[in-house]
Amino acid sequence: MVVTQPGELHEEHEHEHVHLPQHRHHFETEEQQREAASFGMWLFLLTEIMFFGGLFMAYLLYRNWYNPAFVAASHTLSIKLGALNTAILITSGFCMAMAVWAAETRKRKALVNFLGLTNFFGIAFLVVKYFEYAEKWHDSHIPGLKFSIADFGKLGVDMAQKTQVYYSLYFAMTGMHALHMIIGIVLIFWYMVRANRGEFTEGYVAPIENFGLYWHFVDIVWIFLFPLLYLIDLGAK
Amino acid sequence: MSTIVSLPDQSTAALPKRNYLNAEHGLLSWLLTGDHKRIAMLYLISITGFFFLGGAFAGLVRLELLTPAGDLLAADTYNKMFTMHGIVMIFLFLVPSVPATLGNFLIPIMIGARDLAFPKINLLSWYLYLIGGTFTLTALVLGGVDTGWTFTTPLSTHYLNTHVITTGLAIFVAGFSSIFTGLNFIVTIHRMRAPGMTWFRMPLFVWSNYAASILMVLGTPVLAIAIVLVVLERTIGLGVFDPAKGGDPLLFQHLFWFYSHPAVYIMILPGMGVISEVMANFSRKRVFGYTAVAFSSVAIAVFGFFVWAHHMFIMGVSNYSALVFSLLTMLVAVPSAIKIFNWSATLYKGSITFETPMLYAFGFIGLFTIGGLTGVFLGSLGMDIHLTETYFIVAHFHFVMVGGMLMAFLAGIHFWWPKMTGRMYPESLSKLAAVTTFIGFILTFFPQFILGYLGMPRRYHAYPADYQVLNVLSTAGATVLGVGYLLPILYLAWSLKYGEIAGPNPWQATGLEWQLQSPPLTENFTEIPYVDYEAYDFEWLAHKQKQEVTTVG
User: Fold this and answer.
1) If you average pLDDT over residues A2-21, what whole number do you get?
2) pLDDT band, very low/low/confident/very high, at B330 (cuts 50, 70, 90)
3) Does A176 sit within 8 Å of B530, measured CB to CB?
4) Does residue B87 register a pLDDT over 60?
5) Which residue of chain B has the CA closest to A41?
C-alpha cells in the first residue's frame, strides 16, 4: 500500500545532514546522490571498455593473421618515447590520485595544484605523441595519407602491405586514446577554475572522484596499448 | 492513513490545478527542463516527426514496387529511399521509441522516485538525438545515402559517393543519446527505488527496460567504434576494413551486428514491457509467472549478445561457427516463448475487457509470434541460404518491428495517454484505428513472406512481372496501414483539448503511476511512498479504495 509515513524518514535526514548547495532535490539523501554518480561513472567506463574493445578485437584478429608484419612495423616505433610516455602518464595518474586526496581532505590549494600537475603531464604526453606522429609522417608510415613499404622489403611485398593494417590500428587506437586525453585535459581546466572557487573542498568531492576514475581509465588503456603496440617480439630485432 | 487523494469518479473528474504541464510556461521552460516527464514529451514529439518522415520513404518504396518496371524512382534514388527509411526508422524511431518516451515518463514514477538519477544527462540525450536527426536530414538534403542502413564495407568505404560520413556521424551521435538513456535508467533502477520497492515488486515494464538498457550500454559503443573506423577509412584512408591494406570487410560486419542484433532487442524489449502491463491490467490479474517473465527479459538481453553472426551465414563465416550461432539463435526463442505463453496464461480466468490498448496488445501477440517463428526459419542454416536477402526477411523483421514493436508502442501510448495528458482519447475511433492498423499490416507484410519464399530479392526497384499481384496487395495494405497510423495522431492531438478528463486512475490499474493525479506533479510524489504490496495486486487496489472512502470522505 502506498502509505507515506508522515514525515518520519524525512525528518531524520533533516537532522543528520547539513544540506550542501550541490544536493539535487530529486535525491532523497546526499549519500544516494553520491552513490548514483559513482555508479553512473562506472557504467560509463563500461561503455568505454566496449568502445576500445572493438579496436582490441581488431588487433587480436590481425596480429594473429599478420604477425610478421606486426612485428616489423612495431619495431619502427620508438620504445624510448613510448616508455617515456608511459612514465609521464603514470605520474599524471599519481597526481590525479593526490588531487582526489586533496579534495577529500579539503585542501583547496593542494587540489588546484595537483590538478594543474595532472594536466601538465597530460599535455606533456600529447607533446611526445606529436613527435612520434611526426616521425611516422616523415617515414611515410601513415596508411592512406603517406605510405610506402620501402622499410619492409624483407617481408615480401604481400606481407609488407599488411603493415598498413598495423599502422591503421596504431593510429586508430592511440588516436582514440589521445582524443580521450584531450577531452580530459579540457575538463581539468574547467575543474581547476571550479576548485579554485572552493567548490570541491567543502565535502562535495564526487566530481573530482569520478573524473579521477575517468583519468585512470585512460591511463589503463595506455598501459595496454604500450606493450601491444611497442613491445612485440623484441627478440626478433 | 493514505495521503494520496481519493480517486474521484471519472465523470466528476477535474484536471489538477498544479501539474508538470502547467508548472512553468514558455518555450525555454521546455527546452531547458530537467523534468523526465517533459523530456518524455519532447521525445514523443520528435520521434513522431521522424516516424512520419520514415513512413514517407516507405510510402515511396511501396509506390515504386506497385509496378514491375522501375518507373517511378531511378535505381539509385530507390536505394536512397530504402536506406533513409531504415536509418530513420531504426535509429531515430524504434530505438528511442518506448524507452525515451514511455520509459522516461514512467520508470521514475513506477519505482517511486522523483526523477531519473541524472536529469541533465537526460536532457542532453534528447539534444544528442536532435543533433543526430539534424545530421540525418542534412545528409538527406545534400543528396542522401544509399548504403542500406547496414553500412556494409567495402560498399560504404570504397564504392559510393553518397553522404556516408554525414550519416555515419548522425548515427554515432544518436548512439550516445541511447547510451545515456540506458545509463540513466540502470542507475535510476539500482539506486532510486522507493523504500519497499524490491526488485521483484517492480512492474515488468521496468524489468524489460532495464534489460534493454544493458544492451544499450554494452552494445552501442561497439557500433560507435565501427562507424568511427568507417569514417576514418573514408576520410584519411586507414585500412582496418580494407583488404588492400590487410583489413577484412567481414570484421566490420561482426562489429556492426554485435550491436545491431542486440539492437533489435533494444527495440522489442521495452515493447514487451508495455504488453505485460496492458495484459495484466485489462485481465485484472497478476501477470502469470511474474518472475519467469522478468528473467526472460534479462535472458533475451544475455542471449542477444551471442547470436549476431546469424546475419552473416551466407558471407563466408566458418561452418562451425555458423552451427554454433544457429543453435544460440534458436535459444532466443525460449525466453520469447516464455513471454508469449505467460501472457496467454494471464488471460486465463481474467476479467478481460477490450479497450484500445488491449486490442493493440492482442495485435502484438499475434504478429510478434509470427515474426518470431519466421525468425526460427531464418536461424536454421539451410533455410537461411534460400530466404536471406529476399522479401521473406523483410516481412520477418517488419512483423517483429512494426507488428510487434509499433503495436506495443501504440498500446502503451493509448494506455498511458490519460496519465501523460490528463485526458482520454476517443474510445471508438481509437478502436477503429487499432483494427485498421492490424488489417493494413497483415495485408502489407503477409504477401511479402510469399514473395520472399518465391525468391523476390530485397533492395531492387524493379522485379519480374510474375510478382506483381502480391506487390499490389502489399502496396494497397501499406495505404491502409498509413491511414491506421494517421488516425491516432489526429485524434490524440484533438484529445489534448477536447478529450474527456481522465481522473487519476481511469483504468483502475495498480501501478504507482496510477495512484497519482493525472497529469502528475513535477516532483511526482510530494512524499516518497512506502511500497508494501506486490506488482499487479488488484486485491490491494480494491482494498485501498474501500479504505479511502472512509478515510478521505
Assistant:
1) 47
2) very high
3) no
4) yes
5) B183
Average pLDDT score, chain B: 92
Return the pLDDT at A21.
67
Q: Is A7's pLDDT higher than 60?
A: no
Tens-digit pLDDT profile for residues B471-506:
999 999 999 999 999 999 999 999 999 999 988 888
CA atoms of B428 and A76, how far apart (whole Å): 74
Structural domain count of chain B = 1
Closest chain B residue by Cα to residue A61: B251
Whether B4 is in a domain gets the answer no
Q: By CA distance, what is A161's nearest residue in B?
A: B245
Q: B110 to chain A, minimum CA–CA distance in Å?
A: 12
Lowest mean pLDDT among B169-178, B304-313, B530-539: B530-539
Residue of B238, B308, B510, B513 best to disrupt the A interface, most CBs of A under 10 A: B238
Whether residue B240 and residue A26 make contact (CB cut-off 8 A), yes or no, is no
Judged against a pLDDT cut of 60, whether residue A3 lies above it is answered with no
- Phi, psi at residue B202, to the nearest 5°? -75, 145
* Burial of residue B298 (number of CB atoms within 10 Å: 0-12, 13-18, 19+): middle
Which residues in chain B have their CB less than 8 angstroms from residue A58's CB?
Answer: 229, 240, 251, 255
Alpha carbon of residue B159 to chain centroid? 33
- State whether A168 and B217 contact (CB < 8 Å): no
Report the alpha-carbon distance of residue B373 to residue B383 in Å, rounded: 13
Closest chain B C-alpha to A109 CA, distance in angstroms: 30
For residues B156-164, give the mean pLDDT: 91
Distance from CA of A26 to the nearest CA of B (A): 5
> Exposure pattern of B68-90 as b/e (b: 16+ CB <10 Å)?
eebeebeeeebbbbbbbbbbbbb
> Containing domain of residue B487, as a range?
34-551
Distance from CA of B71 to the nearest CA of A (A): 40
pLDDT band at A2 (very low <50, low <70, confident <90, very high): very low
d(CA A175, CA A172) in angstroms, rounded, equals 5
Cβ pair A4:B533 closer than 8 A: no
Q: Do B183 and A47 touch (CB under 8 A)?
A: yes
In residues, how long is chain A? 237
* Predicted TM-score of the model (pTM): 0.93
> Which of B268, B212, B287, B233 minimizes the C-alpha distance to B535?
B287
Nearest residue to B357 via CA among B418, B301, B315: B418
Q: Which of B118, B246, B540 lies nearest to residue A165, judging by beta carbons?
A: B246
Nearest Cβ partner for A58 among B251, B528, B544: B251
CB contact under 8 Å between B117 and A145, yes or no, is no
What is the CATH T-level fold of the domain A44-236, as seen in this structure? Four Helix Bundle (Hemerythrin (Met), subunit A) (1.20.120)
pLDDT mean over B267-281? 96
Q: What is the ipTM of this complex?
A: 0.91
What are the structural domain ranges in chain A? 44-236
Residue B12 forms part of a structural domain: no
Domain contains B154: yes
CATH number at residue B383: 1.20.210.10
| Whole-number pLDDT of residue A18 | 52
Whether B451 is covered by a domain: the verdict is yes
